[in-house]
Structures are given as C-alpha cells and as structure tokens.
Amino acid sequence: MAPYVTEFDLYEPQSTNDLQYPIQKIAIVGSGSWGTALARIAALNAAEKKASFIFQIFSGFDHEVRMWVREREIPGQGLLTEVINSTHENHRYLPDVSLPHNLVAVPDLVEVVKGATLIVLVVPHQFLTPVLDELSKPGVLAPGARAISAIKGVEVAGDEIYTFPWLIEKKLGIPCSALGGANIAMEVAQSEFCETTIGVPSSDDAALWHAVFDSPMFRVHPIEDVAGVSLSGALKNVVALAAGFVDGMGYGGNTKAAILRIGLLEMAAFTKEFFPSSSSLTFSHHSAGVADLITTSFGGRNRKCAEAFIKSGKSFAQLEHELLKGQKLQGVVTAEEIYKFLQARGRTEGYPLFTKVYKISFEGMDPKTLFDDL
Q1: Is 127 marked as a binding-site residue?
Q2: pTM value?
Q3: 299 is in an annotated binding site
C-alpha cells in the first residue's frame, strides 16, 4: 500500500481468489454532537449502498445502524433513546437535524455492537476505558470486526504516551483506524461541504471506511498514517485553546495567525519526535492537519470556551455546563495530559506554547504571558 492512498488505489481491482463478500454492519459507540453527525452519514450510506462489489471485499451494508446512547431522562419528553427514535432527532446534542429512520438509538452497549463488523468509537476519551472493558469481554465482538476512532485526545502514563487507536487495537485485538479533519459537527450534519482524513493500517480498511463515510458533501481521503491523524486531532484542540485566549484578550488576526503557525509547528514537531513513523505531510497536505487546526481555532468549542474563560473568569467546568450542555472539552484534558508527559520527559522547554496553555488553564498564569519567548 502506498503511503498516501488515492481514490484510484481504493478502486483498483484485486484478486477474487478465496475472497468472501460479507454484509457489513455498522455500529456507532457514542451519541454526542460529533458522534451523531457521523452516525447520520453512516446510516445514509448504509441505506443507499445496499450492494456493491466494487471494493472486492464486501457486498453491501446491513440497513440498520445502531448508535449507543447513554440513557437519561429528558424533562417532559421521556428517555433520550425513545425521543431520538420517535422524533429522529438528537434534541440534546444535535438539535434541528433530521436523522435517517434506519439509525436506531440503543442504551445497551453490548446490544449496539452485536453482529457489528464496523465499529465507530466516538465517546469522550475519559469514558473510553470502561467502554473497552465491556467490548473486550468474550463473545461481545463479531469475528472479523474492525474499529475506527474519532476520539480526540491521548493517553499518558508517566513518560509514555499512546494514541487511542493503538489502545483500542491492543485492548480489543482488532485493527483500528483514525478519523479527523476540519469537521464542525453541526456543519457536517447540515451537509455543508467538507473533507476528512482517515488514517488506516491497510488498504482493506481504507476501502471499507471510505464506503462508510464518503459522500458528495463529506469527502473522505484515506492515508496510511494512523498516529498522525490521531495526534493532529488531539493536539489541535490545545492550540485552539490558545486561539481562544487570543480572542478573549481582544487581539486581532495578526496575533491569532502567529499563534496558529507556532501551534502547527509544535504539533508536527511533537508527532515526529514521539511517533517517528508518522508523516509530516499529514499536517501540511490533509484535512486532519492545518485545515482542522484553522477550523477548530475559529469555530470550535475549545476556542469558544477558551475565549469565555478569559472574559468571564469562570472555570472550564462551569463553562462546559453552561455552554456545552455538559459535554466535555477535549482540549483542556489533552493540554493537561501533554504537559504531564512533556514534564516527565524533561521536554517542556521544547514546546513553549503547549506549556503556556496548560499553565494559563490550570495554574492561573497571566494570559498575556502567552506570547513570551515564543
């Protein structure tokens, strides 16, 4: 497989000797705004792509796509799963967006993945461990299942750092890809044109996930760089916090552009230093890199809450409750994880922007020191 998979590569005929053409069943683990937006695309594609031998590895999709929902009571309406399934709308996290009727909300995780061969993991990363514990139990996953992570963040243990696809592969024993790009959930759900990048471990994974998510308004570009796609999705949220601090202090485009340039350099340098097999082209040539950074730093929730953090003096926990309906800011958690890792490695001085974002967020550092020594 070439380092960067083209659409021509995806459609290149393969030998049919001993190949089977199973029906692929999609399951979405997570139902926040981003999870619901991805579930919507997958369900639409599952309904439309009923039989296709073009990829030489599968014959179509099961019509029903299940989405795991953490059950809760919606005041005056009933249980969230019942509301989603009766109204075909996720009023809590993706209001005013119609969902396909073949997308079914289910509160039981094991039931959601039952028989699923393509599992999309898109939960807040602090909830990933219990999810993986449940999925790793004997008999839960279907034989031959594959996963993809759309989770933004990293796992740090002392002076070691792991991407979520790596952890998923290790825990579940199945191949795991990574999805990331310039993708604001509401804009994706409203079918505004955009691109996304999928880092894949093999050409078969590229073909399958391309079929799950690619559409005329959501263009998918698979590349062979799982770590790079995963890390860019995590680190850009830390830089987006810095962009929000700039907005909160009332500075203009010059300042913000400088912070984004410095942030992109730190993102690429960090990835190459600690994940040397990744490609620098992921950051410069693909949606998962510079495009995602720009989008998140102008329109994402991390930027929005970081601006409010400076202007209001409220904690990030308060802002999550007030502005995000309880959803978690991945940038804040990632900033802490990255700082602890760099501290353990004795490398904080090598990444001054990442370090300052952490200290402003957690140690009360004056935001105006953001620009010192950059």
Answers
A1: yes
A2: 0.89
A3: no
Question: Is residue 301 annotated as involved in ligand binding?
Answer: yes
In this predicted model, what pLDDT tens digit does every residue of 204-263 receive, in sequence order?
999 999 999 999 999 999 999 999 999 999 999 999 999 999 999 999 999 999 999 999
Task: Tell me whether residue 90 is annotated as binding.
Answer: no
* Best CA proximity match to 262, nearest among 356, 363, 365: 356
What are the pLDDT digits (tens) for 17-33? 333 557 899 999 999 99
Q: Euclidean distance between the first and final Cα of the chain, in Å?
A: 39
The helix (H) or strand (E) run that includes residue 165 is: helix 164-172
Residues that are catalytic: 236
Q: Which fold has domain 7-224?
A: Rossmann fold (3.40.50)
- Residue 316, Ramachandran bin (φ over 0: left; ψ between -120 and 50: alpha; else beta): alpha
- Distance between CA atoms of 357 and 332, rounded to whole angstroms? 9
Domain(s) labelled CATH 3.40.50.720 in the chain stretch across 7-224
Domain boundaries 229-371, corresponding CATH code: 1.10.1040.10
CA proximity to 212, closest of 99, 44, 98: 44
3-state helix, strand, coil in the chain (%, to 5): 50, 15, 35
Q: Could you tell me where the beta strands, DSSP code E, fall in the chain?
A: 23-24, 26-29, 60-61, 65-68, 73-74, 78-79, 103-106, 118-121, 146-149, 154-157, 160-163, 176-180, 194-199, 218-223
- DSSP state letters, 314-347: --HHHHHHHHSTT---HHHHHHHHHHHHHHHHT-
